[in-house]
TrEMBL record:
Organism in which the protein naturally occurs: Micromonospora costi
Pfam families: FeS_assembly_P, Zn_ribbon_PaaD
SUPFAM superfamilies linked: Fe-S cluster assembly (FSCA) domain-like
Record-linked NCBIfam families: PA_CoA_Oxy4
Gene3D superfamilies per record: Fe-S cluster assembly (FSCA)
Residue intervals of the PaaD zinc beta ribbon domain: 115-156
InterPro entries with a match to the protein in the record: Fe-S_Maturation_MIP18, FSCA_dom_sf, MIP18-like, PaaD-like, Zn_ribbon_PaaD
Protein name per Swiss-Prot or TrEMBL: Phenylacetate-CoA oxygenase subunit PaaJ
Higher taxonomy: Bacteria, Bacillati, Actinomycetota, Actinomycetes, Micromonosporales
Stretches assigned to coiled coil: none
The MIP18 family-like domain, residue ranges: 6-66
């Protein structure tokens, strides 16, 4: 049997296929109920507009069944709310490599809020403009780089 935490952490986000749900910060906990022996997975949904959570739940069930834990329970927790700050360092690096601009950290305590330039993931230029509030999915906005003229997806910061 595969460790349930390892099995669940490898599930890929259906919206942002380069990231696992662990790197995206959706996966909160994988525990084992000591009484029943059942695996209990706790997840926090990302954007409310994303229809991906049903897909993620089904993928978690499939991964756990394949790992020898078919009786898993999946709990959804809404507080604290997910934010793009929960994306891991490796997740941010993968987003950049995939041409998706990683969101700037939001709400850092003691830091004056600044509107930071969205940098082009291809050439790194801060000379960018938003083309559309909605990119390839509801979670992403479509931006264009004025230096290399390439359009790119920017993950909306929450
Ligand atoms: Zn560029």
């Amino acid at each position: 049997m595969t460790d349930p935490r390892t099995a669940v952490a490898a599930v890929v986000d259906p919206e942002i296929r380069v990231l696992t749900i662990d790197e995206l910060g959706i996966l909160r906990a994988v525990d084992e109920d000591p009484a029943s022996g059942r695996v209990v997975v706790t997840i926090t949904p990302t954007y409310t507009g994303c229809p991906a959570m049903d897909v993620i739940r089904a993928d978690i069930r499939r991964a756990l069944a394949a790992a020898g834990h078919p009786e898993a329970e999946i709990r959804t927790v809404h507080h604290p709310a997910w934010s793009t700050d929960w994306i891991s360092e490796s997740g941010r690096a993968k987003l950049a490599a995939a041409g998706i601009a990683p969101p700037s950290p939001v709400g850092a305590p003691g830091v004056v809020a600044l509107t930071l330039a969205v940098r082009c993931p291809r050439c790194g230029s801060p000379e960018t403009e938003q083309l559309s509030r909605f990119g390839s999915t509801a979670c992403k906005a479509l931006w264009r780089c004025r230096s290399c003229s390439e359009p790119f997806d920017h993950l909306k910061a929450l």
